[in-house]
Each structure stands twice: as C-alpha cells, then as structure tokens.
Design brief:
heterodimer; A: alpha/beta; seven-stranded mixed sheet; two-stranded antiparallel sheet; 56% helix; elongated; B: 89 residues; mainly beta; SH3 type barrels; six-stranded antiparallel sheet
Amino acid sequence: MTHITRPARATSAPRPRPHALHVVLAGNPNAGKSTLFNALTGLRQHVGNFPGVTVERLEGGFTYDDVPVTVTDLPGAYSLSPESPDERIAVDVLLGRAAGVRHADVIVIVVDADNIERHLYFASEILELGRPTVVALNRMDRLAATGTRIDIPELIHELGAVVVPVVATKGEGIEHLRRAISLAPTLPPPSTLVGANGANARYAWISRVLDACVIRPERGARTPSDRVDRVALHPVTGPLVFVGLMLLVFQAMFSWSRPLMQAIQSLVGGAGNAVLAGLPAGDLRSLLADGVVAGVGNVLVFLPQITILFLFIGVLEDSGYMARAAFVMDRFMRPVGLHGRSFIPLISGYACAVPAILGTRTIKDDKQRLATIIVVPMISCSARLPVYTLLIGAFVPSIAVANGWLNLQGLTLLLMYVAGTVGALATAALFRQTLLRAPTRALILELPPYSLPNARVIAMSVWQRVRVFLKRAGTVILAASVLLWAASHFPRPASADSRAESRLSQSALGHVGHVLEPAVRPLGYDWKIGVSIVSSFAAREVFVSSMSTIYGMGDGSESGALQDRLRTATKDDGTLAYTPLVAISLMAFYVFALMCTSTVAVTFRECGGGAKGLAWIVLQFTFMLALAYGAALAVYHGGLAAGWTGA
Amino acid sequence: MSSGDAVDWADGDGPTLCALAVLPAGARVRVVRLACALADADRLRVLGLFEGAHVRIVDRGSGLLLDVCGARLAVGRSLAAEIMVRVVP
C-alpha cells in the first residue's frame, strides 16, 4: 500500500538543490505527531523553547541525499484560528510570522488515517497556504480492523499534494516520507481547495473528498475503546479507576524502586569510601567526600523513583487515558472553579511544576489559566520525593497495612500527595472566588482511542525528563553542595581541637542557622533543619544534600546512611533531636512551601513578566510560605497536644 | 436555556427540536443550532460539530460522549444543553 504516485521529477523545472531543509510537523493533537517525529529523527533531537515564549520546542534532524534536514515538532492544533496560547505558536510558525523562527521550507501535515474526516479540516487549511507540503497519512495499520480503505492516488489528486502512508509506531513508510520531504520544494505548490469560508463549507468539501477516495463501512455502535470507556468514564466507576491507578503509581514509586535505590546507595557509599581511602585527610578529602559525593550522591539515589513516576505519566498519556482522567475529573474541578483541562497540568505537576506551568498554555481562559499556574506548585513534584523519602524512610516504620496490600510508608507518602492536592484545589477555589472571579468555560475534549503505549515514545520522554534531573544534580545541586560544604567548614573555629558539633556551630552555616532558629523553633525544628530549608530554595532536593553535608562532616563519615544518622541524632542534653512528629511537620512544610527557583522564574514569565509577573510571584510565594508554616505549626502542636511525643 | 429540558419548538414536520443533553445514549441526531457562547460554538464547529453535522451519543455519564466524524468528543452536560438537535431515525 506504500506505492507513492506523484508527478515525476521531470514535470517541474529542476531547481537548484537546497543546502539544507527546514521542516515543520503540524497536525491535530493525537495525530501521532510525536511518534512520527521520533521515527523521522531518531535520537538526534533536543528540547528548546520557541523564542520569547516558553512553549516547548522539539527539534531534530536527519540527512537525506546529503542534504541536512531539520525537523521542528509544532504543538498540536485543530485549525488555523488558534484558541489557546499553545495553538497560537503553531499557527504563527505555519504562517511564517513567529519572531525568530525561520519560515519552513516544507510543511508535513500529520493526518490520522483512522480519523481522516476531522483531520482533513486542519490539513486543508494548511494546504491552502500554498507552501510546499507533504501529507503524512499516519496509522494506516488501523484501517484493516475497521474495514476502511483509502484510495491514495485519488486522495493525492483531490488534495493536490503528495500523500505518504505511514505507520509511525512501526517505522513503516518513513523512508518514503523522507524522500517526499526532500522533493517537496521542487513540486508545484498546492492550491485553493475549498474556496469558501466557514466550517460548514469546509466539512462539505471534506465529505465530497471522502466520497471520492474513502470506502468506509458503517461504523459499529461501540468500538473497543467505547467499551473500556463505559467503565473508565462512568460517574461512579470512573473516579474509582482513577484513584486505583494513582494508588498503583505511588505503591510502585515506593516499592519497585527500592532495589535500584539500594544499588545506587551502595555505589555512592563506595565512591565515598574510595575518596576516604585514596586521599590524605584534609580539606580536599572532606570537600569531595562530605560535599560532592554526599551532597550529589544522596540526591542521585532518587533517580529510580523519579524515573518510575515519569514512566507512569508517559504510559498514561500515550495510552490515551490522560484525556479520560481530565473528563472524569472535570466534575470535581468545576466546584473549585477549574476545568477538566486544568487537570492535565495539575497531573504533570506531580512530576515537575515547570513543564506543568508551561502546560497551562492549552487553557483558553486567562483567569482559569492564572489560577492553575498559582496552584500547580502545591502539587507534590518529584523534587519533593527526596525529602519525603528521606524522612519517611527514617521515621515511618515499614508496616504492612490493608492485609499487606499497602505499606505504611507508601501510605504516608500518598497522604503527603493528597494534602498537596487538596491544598491546591482549595487555593484554586479561593482565588476563583476573589482575584480571579469569572465563569468557568464549558468542557470540550477530544478522547483519542486507547492504544498500547509506544515503548520508544515513552523511553524518549522519560529520558528527556531524567536528563533534566541529572543536569540539575550536576549543576545546581553540585554547586549548592560545594557552597554548603564551604559554609559549614569556614570560618574555622578558634580552638583547634573542638568537637565536630561545635565546629559546625561556629561556621558561617552555623551562624545563619542560629539567626534562623527562633523562626523554626515553634515548628519543632533545630537550626540545622532551618539552614537546610533556606538553602533548599535553590531546589528542594538541596534539603537532602544539605542534611548530608551537615551530618556527613566530622567523624570520618563511615558510609552510615543518612537516615540512620537522623534517627539517632541527639541534642546537647542527649535526647533525640528528631522525632516522627518533627518529620511529619517538616513534610507538611515541604508539601506547601514554594522552594524552587525554576518554578518562580517560569511563573514570572508565564504571568506576563514585568510588574505583573512580579506581583503574582510575590503573592504566590508568600501565600504558599504562610500556608506551609501554618500547616507545619498545626501538625507539630496538634501532635503534641494529642500527647504524641513521637519518640 | 440553562436547564436541559426539551424545548417544544413546534415547527411543522419532522421530530422536535431538543437539546442534546436530554437524549439517551445511542441517539443519532443532526445538529441544528449552537446556542452556546460564540467561542465554544467556533471550537465545536472546527471539531466537526457544526450545524448540519450528524452526531451519535455514545454514552452519558457526568458529561456526554459523542461520536463526531468517527472521533470521540466529550462535552460537559451544561454545554450539551445548549446544542439544539433533531433526532434522525
């Protein structure tokens, strides 16, 4: 079925071969654009931003016939009349009016063959731009199941453009597509198709085209997807399915990751011991062992958990479930003034607030979008995981509950996520009743058919996120660890032979800590936690690095896990420094506190920058800090009042 | 037209004009009028739910699941109350 009939090369006057081609991929959401992008470009891709805006820009390339071809994947759009900021970018690039983006030499429109009627709407609009265009007719393999047949030569005739059938998930037809792309600039451009304005006229044209080249049996009343949706979208079972899936994710994050985390832990321990054994005692050895290895290593330990989280998000997205979740949750979002569409950024917030805030660009309504941006950072992101895991592992016993289905540790973790989610929804309701008051827009959502997730697509997206985490570990967290080490070692104490404890207390870090102590004392924290909280404003994981640095110093650092150190740490009077109650209070603080420079920066930009952006981030930061402090205070004193000393 | 009640627009022949929201799953309808906010109407048209389009209600839950051009479109119940349709036999 992959024979391509197209005008022979000789029919148009041969033009000089281009030195390089710039191609953009356009199409409806769910057309399979990202899969096709991956199939076209392989591993040669990188993530950037479109100039001036923060919409993710995926770029990659390949070489065909010695001509280098760069490919840009555009955000999905339904038509050339954009509704959301996300669609606006795609349309601006297609029209060649996006500042700082080269006008594409070739446009590739990705059309889902199984959904051709709807997808031809945007496709026909793009063809009428009269630019060199190739239509990639994706998911040809699904046609057999529905008994649909598409007459490709006839479709080429109707559209006046090259149509290449492909199956992006299997890599079929990709070589044909590359060839069609390289030839597109030499072919006569497509011309007017519909010749009238309005959706009705365009659909009338589409229906004529389909009559000419598509043979389609009457669709069955219910597709397999519909049968799944009977349960997944049901008012009662739908939310249950959703909660069940979330439970699975958290359970997996805690239990499946354990062996891998232990392996990394022992690697980090090994590296620390190697430094201790290989270097003479002194500042350099201490810097490497207590600063670099302890600081960065103790954050790297969380890599397996973060990978598992992104893996699940990838699977839920690629299988088509994420859109269902938005539909199911719309009912619960509406009372707090949010929209099913706000739900997808909120879910991404469990991974990281930065892409989640960028994801709000698909929300059409401005006030709704702002409300979503404000509350997204309250959703517990993967950077909080290191903090939660450290404290839960140290202070919450691993006891089976619910007949062994769940573990108390996993349950505590889930509780933190629930607290953040409830806080986010309540805050949304508050803002939508006050500063951002406006009616909520109606829900219109396309639900793609369920499909088996594509391993390659998921691997790519997991890898891109993991790479960001690793980069942070190598930059922000490394720098913070070195700074913290220096601050905890200098200035040196006057008396040479003092205990580690008093040495730390007399360092710069100690001085800062003692200044902060009155502020954190009511929460049950000591100055070491106070310092670690402040330093974790760079990034939440730095809390763990900071505690590692503080507790790694002094007595030779015999790879005793940080959790054991925290559990056995004592105050001057010999009583335990930290109790489970302090740990819970600290987690409550981290649930709500906005400890992340990247989030603050992206919120500033997305809220319009300048004075407006500044006002929003100040409001957001102080609001969340007050909430965090209040929550920690309530937990600590509530616990004490309930007679829980926690020891 | 905020409620989902059927509207008795007596206009001669054919089945009565009614809101999409009141119809049961399995109903096949032709869209007659989009009485919702302009921006929502534009989006619905682009997605294939234009005046004259044939649509089938696949399922009803907290909203409506529609078959529009073979694709599945979910619309909230309040919006469905503003989509005026005529049942086709």
